[in-house]
Design goal:
68 residues, mainly beta, two-stranded antiparallel sheet, 7 strands
Length: 68
């Protein structure tokens, strides 16, 4: 996913109900789930306050001359 110029790799399914996060909205360093009001920090994967499920799994992105 893209947050401005920053690329972030994360699991695609929301850990809460499995919603497709590729349909969510990225804004201000967070991905917002399209199914409910939870959002995830794109630096740590932490879920927004008030939710009690695990963090979003994030993966390191490495840019190279021939791609990512």
């Amino acid at each position: 996913m893209r947050d401005g110029e920053r690329l972030v790799a994360a699991e695609r399914a929301c850990p809460h109900e499995g919603a497709d996060l590729s349909l969510g909205r990225c804004a201000a360093g967070r991905i917002h789930c399209p199914r409910h009001l939870a959002s995830f920090d794109l630096a740590s994967g932490a879920v927004s306050p008030g939710w009690s499920f695990r963090a979003l799994r994030l993966y390191r992105v490495i840019r190279a001359n021939d791609g990512l």
